[in-house]
Design brief:
This protein has 392 residues and is α/β, with parallel strands linked by helices. It has 15 helices and 8 strands. Strands 2, 4, 5, 6, 7 and 8 form a 6-stranded mixed sheet that branches. α6 packs across α7 (113-121) and α6 (103-111) packs antiparallel against α10. The longest helix is centred in the middle third of the chain and has 22 residues, at 228-249. It binds iron/sulfur cluster (SF4). This is Exonuclease V. It is found in: Cytoplasm, Cytosol; Nucleus. Its main location: cytoplasm. GO terms for molecular function: 4 iron, 4 sulfur cluster binding; DNA binding; metal ion binding; single-stranded DNA 5'-3' DNA exonuclease activity. Its cofactor is Mg(2+); [4Fe-4S] cluster.
Length: 392
């Protein structure tokens, strides 16, 4: 039998959050990898060397996929030029040391990919009003979460502990959904196109008709419904949530999915506070693998259905009034196609793209208007642009 839901949900303590960041150190922090200063030195020594663009070598992108000849070069000592080339051949996932992406990374990309990249690289250039809007939205979401459960801080000691918290939060909502209840802030994760994705569903409830309904709350600074382009971005976001959630309850989130993509260790002992929190929730676990096994069994054996209905509620931040509700149609093939297109950027298979000319109006309110390379290239002429035309 599945345990009763705990009265609280866990979040990492401040120290734990630092541990999460440390765990995200990737290829650039490996011993032997070039620092930016070393790279600059090499570039100065070999000015004629052509740097590879992501994906144009036709070679695999991750060091573990390097062909045999690359290993022999490593053994015999790389030339400076080879080191520069390998550094330049990093995919965006590697460049930003990411082992996974968030659903919102992809949905933001569907608004303007170039803007999403600038947002990651230059967050300090974001307009202050955008920052205020985002922070207010976060506070409203937290307040709604606190309506249904408490949030407790749990100290984490490893990256496995940080993921254990997400899994415990997921485990805690399964019995609630089985009993026909309503849950908020539900973590979902899975793999699309060989990239690990994670997201947080705002709310899952059963409708009067008994259908499982996803409700996403979008708060707005202005007291009217968003444009079609904004809605398109939000539609894609909730479709990705459904895609991931359905795969989870259909038993596709096997333990090795997490270990192979996030490089988590099955045998890693869980920290004391994690084990205590798990115990209170009715789970006896010692290592991370125990928890993964529990997650897989609980998801697979539960009779939770796939999501039947996707709804987005838009409300005005200041007056807290509902502006309108959109019902979103889920078309799996289209969702997969879009995800494939956006993930191609992250995997280094194509260059970053900005908005097409018919959507240039988005640039007027963009924080990166003054520095945007995409706009500069467009102004120089079509022959300066690289990459295929953006898919629709
Ligand atoms: Fe995208 Fe336009 Fe902003 Fe450039 S200026 S990042 S193309 S919205």
């Amino acid at each position: 039998p599945l345990p009763s839901p705990p009265p609280s949900r866990a979040s990492p303590s401040a120290q734990g959050e630092a541990a999460i960041q440390a765990s995200m150190a990737g290829p650039g922090s490996e011993p032997g990898e070039l620092s930016d200063a070393e790279l600059l030195q090499l570039l100065l020594e070999e000015p004629g060397d052509r740097a590879l663009q992501p994906g144009d070598s036709g070679k695999p992108n991750s060091s573990s996929d390097l062909p045999l000849e690359s290993f022999s070069e490593v053994l015999t000592g790389d030339s400076a030029a080879e080191k520069v080339k390998r550094k330049r051949a990093q995919t965006p996932l590697e460049k930003y040391y990411l082992k996974y992406l968030c659903v919102t990374d992809l949905s933001t990309q569907s608004w303007c990919e170039q803007q999403m990249v600038y947002g990651r690289e230059l967050p300090q250039l974001q307009a202050p009003e955008t920052v205020v809007l985002l922070n207010t939205g976060k506070s409203i979401h937290l307040a709604r979460e606190l309506e249904v459960h408490d949030v407790v801080k749990v100290h984490t000691t490893s990256k496995e502990d940080s993921w254990a918290i997400k899994i415990l939060n997921l485990l805690s909502v399964i019995p609630v959904l089985q009993a026909g209840g309503c849950v908020r802030e539900l973590p979902v994760f899975g793999v699309i196109e060989d990239v690990f994705l994670m997201g947080i569903i705002d709310e899952l409830c059963y409708s009067a008709k008994g259908e499982l309904e996803l409700r996403e709350l979008k708060t707005r600074g202005r007291p009217f419904m968003p444009s079609g382009a904004q809605k398109k971005k939000d539609y894609f976001q909730v479709c990705l949530y459904k895609y991931l959630f359905d795969a989870m309850v259909q038993g596709q989130l096997k333990p090795d999915v997490l270990t192979s993509h996030i490089y988590l260790r099955l045998k890693q002992p869980l920290g004391l506070q994690i084990r205590e929190h798990a115990q209170k929730a009715g789970f006896t676990v010692t290592c991370f693998g125990d928890l993964l096994e529990l997650m897989y069994l609980n998801l697979t054996l539960s009779d939770i259905p796939s999501i039947d209905c996707l709804k987005i509620e838009y409300s005005h931040q200041e007056s807290n009034t509902l502006l309108g509700t959109e019902v979103v149609q889920f078309e799996e093939e289209k969702v997969r196609e879009k995800a494939q297109y956006y993930l191609a950027y992250w995997k280094g298979q194509r260059e970053v793209q900005g908005v097409e000319i018919e959507e240039a109006w988005k640039c007027r309110s963009c924080s990166y208007l003054e520095i945007c390379d995409w706009r500069k290239k467009r102004a120089e002429g079509p022959e300066q642009r690289s990459g295929p035309k953006k898919s629709k």
